[in-house]
Amino acid sequence: MLSLINVPPYRLSNDYIDHFYHLVMTQLNQDHAEVRFSAFQMATELFSRSHHFRALLVTNLQEFLELTVETDVEHPLPPPKEVARKLKTQAIQTVQVWQSTYGEAYKKLALGYHFLKQVKKVDFQDVEARTLAERRRQEEKQQRLERIYKGKLEKAKQEMEEMASEIEESLTEMNNCMTLIMPDSFNFFSSELPAVSEKTTEVSTERHQDTEVWDEQPCCSKDLSKEGGRVAEVSKGEEEKEDSSGESDMEEGVDEDVFIRSSGLMSRTYRLDLNVSSDLKVKETEENEAVVNTMRDLHRLISSRYLPVIQSWIQVFTKVGVEEQLMRRATDLKKSLEKVLRKHDELHIDYKARQRRVLKAGEEEEDDDDDFEEVPEKEGYEPHIPEHLRAEYGLDSISSPSSSVAELKPSEPVDRPAAPPMPSTLSRLKSRLCEEEQDPTCAAATLRVLKEKMTTATSTSVSGGSAKPTTNCSKQGEEMEKAPVIPFGLDLYYWGEEQPTAGKIVKYTSQHQFWVPHEVEEEVENEELSAQMKSRYITFAGSFQPVEHKCKAPMPNGSLCERQDRVKCPFHGLIIPRDEIGRPINPEDAVRLEKEERKRREEQPDWRDPELMREIEAATGEDLGSSKTYGKGKKTGKGKGKRRKHPNLTDLKQSANTSRSRLEKKVFNKSSMRRIAEVMNKMDTRKHEKFANQFNYALK
Amino acid sequence: MLSFLTARQTGVDDPVRLRRAESTRRVLSLELNHDRDVERIHGNGVNCIDIEVIEGRYMLSGGSDGVIVIYDLENSSKKSHYTCKAVCTVGRSNRHVHKFSVETVLWYPYDTGMFVSSSFDKSMKVWDTETLKPADVFQFDGNVYCHHMSPIARKHSLIAVGTKDPKVQLCDLKSGSRIHFLQGHRGEILSVRWSPRYEHILATASTDGRVCMWDVRRAAGSLFTLDQYNGDKSKASSEAVNTAHNGRVNGLCFTDDGLYLLTTGTDDRMRLWNSATGHNTLVNYGKVVNESRKGVKFTVSRGCSPEFVFMPCGSSVAVYGLYTGELVTTLRGHYNNVDCCEFHPDYQELYSGGKDCNILAWVPVLRQPDVEDEGKKGGAQAAVNPAFEDDWSSDED
After folding, report:
1. Residue A482 falls within a domain, yes or no?
2. Contacts of B43 in chain A (CB under 8 A)
3. Per the domain annotation, does B73 fall within a domain?
4. Would you call B43 and A48 a contact, using CB atoms and an 8 Å cutoff?
5. What's the number of domains chain A is made of?
6. Do A107 and B43 touch (CB under 8 A)?
7. Is the peptide bond before A80 cis (omega within 30 degrees of 0)?
8. Shortest CB distance from B335 goes to which of A49, A107, A112?
9. Are A38 and A95 members of one domain?
10. What is the extent of the structural domain holding B93?
11. B360-382: pLDDT as tens digits
12. CATH code (residue B8)
């Protein structure tokens, strides 16, 4: 009896196992690989323990295998894919384990194992548990790839055979070019270092002459404590000197004084940075032009053609795994090409611009042109007339518009056109000018017209001549400032005039060549249109006025709401005047708020306070429906979307939520389909009505 | 059983009654037996099997890769565990092997020295069992779906052959030639069966949904065609053709006494007909899933008092009561579609072949000995086979 009590319930009765088996099978049937996987794991646990469970499972092993190993092609494992794959591999391994332990006792298990092994060709050693078809597909793909690679390899080999000599030729050519430009004696690649050392020794020897103390250190990028002036002299343009005042403290005061007195320099310590440029600059000149040209061509050829080609060969070779010799040859070629390119870069050849020749020709032409003297235009309007020629043109010296404007000063009122300072000698000329102005062919006439235009344009009042210009100007300026800038429109075009065609619509009732209807009102006046032509819309937006007040409604955390909405706070409703601690100032507001609060309380009973309920739920683990009531009471629950029932499962629908599916939902939903069908039917029936006299439309 | 035995001893009962009762009991306890295996020879699905009636010892099986195997079913080793050995095989290496799937294999009813096989390679071969060479080959124009030989015929040795051609062909083994056509069907002939009661009566089933009964002596036309509505024109379609099923009819089987004929069609129905009148007995078997495009080889038990139908149904074999239409049990064991099943009347065993390459033997599991032995027996069994033990881990106590 005691032992019976100790025995857990599942050992007492097979009914529990039956029940468990059915539960597991239902879960295995779920269309979710993760659910299936979990159910499968449970099944494996119990399989090793209970004979009854084994018997149950083995009788229905077909279904079990179908749901876990994917034996039925028409019922593949559900998504998500990774989990499905994992489930499959695990299931296959498990079946193998079962077969080895229980295969003899349960015949169907053995049969199932053989079925998997022989019919489904599951390779139990293969960890990836690929089916036969998968494996074959893989092989085919491999073979196809191999074939492609082989083709590529052949092609690359052939290309290489063809191009290798060419490349080598251009390589030697390039090298030769470079040696031509840079003779071997000045071999910059090897002589780089000696060049530097030469210079340094030079510097150091000079320094030896000057100073006795500092001599051991090599001079590049070292602190030199000595008369910097000397060094500066020595190093000339190549060296930069820099004040390193920090070291001057080291020197003794007396010495310093002497030094300063003798040399006029504040410090003895100077930092010398020698910047020996190893760069060589080759300039294209008349002599080396041909060489440089070929070199440039070769450079372009190498960098744009040969290098990419070789790169692709090497890629192909590495992929296919070709014999070493070919590979080495290709890499050698590439290396030498790269070396040449590097050399070329180091040369820093200063190419001249390409269109040099063309330009030269142009210059020559220009030279030819220079034989002619340029003569400025004479006839018509001449905006700038030199002062000494003014009389010749019959003008007074200041009357040109530009100068008059310049001379105009607000303190000195001058009525410009009315009373110009008129020298008496010119009076005769002036009268003649007036005569001339009548003649439209002469320059003076043109000038007058221009002048008139100009004055009207600047100020209308000037032409009137009655008001004083100063006040005019200032007033004008004020007005100008005030006046809005508006885009040009029809109303401006016809400003102050009657629009001749405003709102008139010309009707051509017939386009016919001969036939004309006898009474036609050719023109119709459209009130609306004419109004439109004369009026102008001006949008008045007003100016932005920042909100000064705050919501100030008390918040649960004790502070006041800081929102600065103009009229209504999204959280606390209409913004009303409140005092320092958030109480409404107006009593009616307070009453209203109180009412609202009470109403809300009624809607949601106190014991169903969602937060409290959630806490209780968390503590007890029972669902009291907090989320439900909360969502129902207010719509706020919906804002976050429904809480998911199984948060640990991958949401299968999420992946299906693509733009396409959303569109499909919109386009193919029932109501829209119906609507479209209706419209199309209507169109169809219209056709029927229209052509009712034709038999095939008359029939419905 | 004891009452049956005493009744038998005292001579109250007919000896047949005991036999029937016992065989019924055995059929009802059919199970996939651990002790009986059939050797795995087929590398592809098993399309058809046939057990010879003379000794009940040899079984023929035809595979969908053209292989034909002969098994020895008799257990002469005096042990309970027995694997049916393959006696001989017409394998792929055999030069006379069928090129395509073997659809029907059939023993010659009077002798195991000969068997006939037909295949999708448009031929039917008559084999000599000793030499495993075809004694005769019949060539046809289309795929051969089925053939059958009358199990009781004394006056003729005709093989009825159903092919893609709507004409049923009769081949005479004596002359080795096709001697006759039976015209009447409009579709491929999926199944042919000779009556086990009258040697000249032949039933044929076709894709046009009709089942025709023929008397081969009067071959101008069929005797009658089975009508699922029993002449009730109001239910029948407008065409004046009697149909047995609304889809293809792909299975035919006479009961052992030849009084009834069973047909199955792709309308997922199975119907039982009075073979003499062609009357539909309207036994309702419920939905019998049947999606085969070829013939279905199902079988009926012999020597039981209510007879049973063994019908391949997906990956299982469904057992129906013949006259009640009740689904008795479902034999689950195959992992893929079951194509054929054959009943062994002597031992009340069932052999079934399926697309999963297996031939499974369903052997009656006798009732466990009574209570007093059980403790010992159970203990002994557990000792023999630890796999049957529960294995709860002790830490859960």
Report:
1. no
2. 118
3. yes
4. no
5. 4
6. no
7. yes
8. A112
9. yes
10. 2-365
11. 888 888 766 554 444 444 444 44
12. 2.130.10.10
Which residues in chain A have their CB less than 8 angstroms from residue B64's CB? none
Mean pLDDT of chain B: 83
CA distance A104 to chain B (A): 8
For B224-287, strand residue ranges (E) read 224-225, 249-254, 260-265, 269-274, 279-280
Q: Between A393 and A320, name the one with better pLDDT.
A: A320
A631 within a domain of the structure (yes/no): yes
* Contact indicator for A310, A164 with CB cutoff of 8 Å: no
Q: Residue B387: inside a domain, yes or no?
A: no
B392:A49 CB<8 A:
yes
Q: Does B34 touch chain A (CB under 8 A)?
A: yes
Query: Given A603, A618, A649, which residue is the final one in a domain?
Result: A603
Mean pLDDT, rounded, for B96-115: 90
Residues A126 and A102 in one domain: yes
Tell me the HSE value of B198 on the side-chain side, using a 13 A CA sphere.
13
pLDDT at position A633, please? 41
Does the pLDDT of residue A234 top 80, yes or no?
no
Between B161 and A491, the more confident residue is B161
Quote the radius of gyration of chain A (alpha carbons, Å): 50
Q: Domain end: A603, A627, A647, which one?
A: A603
The B299-300 sheet, strands edge to edge? B299-300, B308-313, B316-321, B327-332
- Domain interval for residue A676: 664-700
Query: Has residue A584 got a pLDDT over 50?
Result: yes
- Is residue A224 situated within a structural domain? no
Closest approach of A72 to chain B, Cα-based (Å): 9
One domain for residues A690 and A573: no
In a shared domain, residues A12 and A72? yes
Q: Are A43 and A102 part of one and the same domain?
A: yes
Residues of chain A in Cβ contact (below 8 Å) with chain B:
6-8, 11, 48-52, 54, 59-62, 65, 71, 101-102, 104-108, 111-112, 114-115, 118-119
- pTM score, two decimals? 0.52
Q: Would the pLDDT of A511 be above 90?
A: no
Q: Could you tell me which chain B residue has the CA closest to the CA of A107?
A: B34
Whether B171 is covered by a domain: the verdict is yes
For residue B390, list chain A residues with Cβ-Cβ distance below 8 A. 11, 49-52
Number of separate domains in chain B: 1
* C-beta atoms surrounding A272 within 10 Å: 23
Q: Are residues A54 and A122 in the same domain?
A: yes
Buried b (16+ CB within 10 A) or exposed e, B217-239: eebeebeebbbbebeeeeebeee
Question: Is 60 exceeded by the pLDDT of residue A210?
Answer: no
Quote the mean pLDDT of chain A.
69
Q: How many CA atoms lie within 13 A of B384 on its CB side?
A: 8
Q: What are the two backbone dihedrals, phi and then psi, of residue A270, each rounded to the nearest 5 degrees?
A: -135, 150
Same domain, A578 and A698: no
- Note whether B335 contacts A6, CB cutoff 8 Å: no
d(CA A150, CA A152): 5
Select the residue of B335, B390, B397 nearest A50 (Cβ to Cβ). Answer: B390
What percent of chain B has pLDDT above 90? Answer: 15
Query: Cβ separation of A62 and B332 shorter than 8 Å?
Result: yes
The residue in chain B having the minimum alpha-carbon distance to the alpha carbon of residue A66 is: B335
| Whole-angstrom distance, CA of residue B338 vs CA of residue B84 | 19
Residue B12, in any domain of the structure: yes
- Count of A-B CB contacts under 8 Å: 66
A613 in any annotated domain: yes
Residue with tokens 């600065």: A564
- Cβ distance of A49 and B357 shorter than 8 Å: no
A76: pLDDT confidence band, cut at 50, 70 and 90? confident
Chain B, residues 323-382, CB within 8 A of chain A, namely 332-336, 355-358, 360
Which residue in B333, B393, B396 is closest to A111 by CB distance? B333
Note whether A96 and A68 are same-domain residues: yes
Question: Which among A68-82, A448-462, A651-665, B324-338 has the top mean pLDDT?
Answer: B324-338
Q: How many CB atoms lie within 10 A of CB A25?
A: 17
